[in-house]
Amino acid sequence: MTSTTATKITLTVMPAGTAYEAESGITLLEALSRNGVMKHECDNGGKICLNLCHVSVLEGRKSLSKVQRTENERLDQIVGVGSKSRLACQAVLGEEAVTIELPTL
Ligand code: FES
After folding, report:
1. Mutate to test the pocket of ligand 1, among 50, 64, 72, 78 (most ligand atoms within 8 A of CB)
2. Domain that holds residue 77
3. Which residues pair with 86 in a beta bridge?
4. CATH number, position 59
5. Are 64 and 91 in contact (CB under 8 A)?
6. Is residue 49 part of a domain?
7. By CB count within 10 A, which of 30, 48, 59, 74 is most buried?
8. pLDDT at residue 20 above 70?
9. pLDDT classification of 85: cutoffs 50, 70, 90
10. Which whole number is the average pLDDT over 31-57?
11. Is residue 44 part of a domain?
12. What number is the average pLDDT over the span 55-65?
């Protein structure tokens, strides 16, 4: 039997600059949810997605999973996305620290 051990990384959330502990291998949304920062999830199996988990990745972008076609298509529907934009439910944490910024509502 093989066991995998998740690496603990630091997830910093701007603009407050608060640092949280997160585990590699889980989505950014899951890490934010576990720390009480963001609690959104599309509840319809992803058919109609509201894209409310949009964040900007300021540091550690290369450590995250690559943007897949579905995420890219969803990002295209959001006004104000940039090259740092990710959907937290699609980005899986790697083994390096990540700094994100939550959009201002
Ligand atoms: S939870 Fe719906 S787009 Fe991320």
Report:
1. 50
2. 17-101
3. 55
4. 3.10.20.30
5. yes
6. yes
7. 74
8. yes
9. very high
10. 79
11. yes
12. 97
Residue 47 binned pLDDT confidence (cut-offs 50, 70, 90): low
Determine if ligand 1 sits within 6 Å of the CB of residue 32.
no
Q: Which residue among 37, 48, 49, 77 is best mutated to probe the pocket of ligand 1, counting the most ligand atoms within 8 A of its Cβ? A: 49
3-state class (DSSP) for residue 30: helix
Q: Which amino acid is at 33?
A: S
Q: Verify whether ligand 1 is closer than 6 Å to residue 75 (CB atom).
A: no
Give 93 Cα–ligand 1 centroid separation in angstroms: 16
Q: What is the distance between the alpha carbons of residues 30 and 23, in angstroms, rounded to a whole number?
A: 10
Residue 3 in any domain: the answer is no
The single-letter DSSP state of residue 2 is -
Question: Does residue 37 lie in a domain region?
Answer: yes
Give the number of domains in the chain: 1
Question: Do residues 54 and 81 touch, judged by C-beta distance below 8 A?
Answer: yes
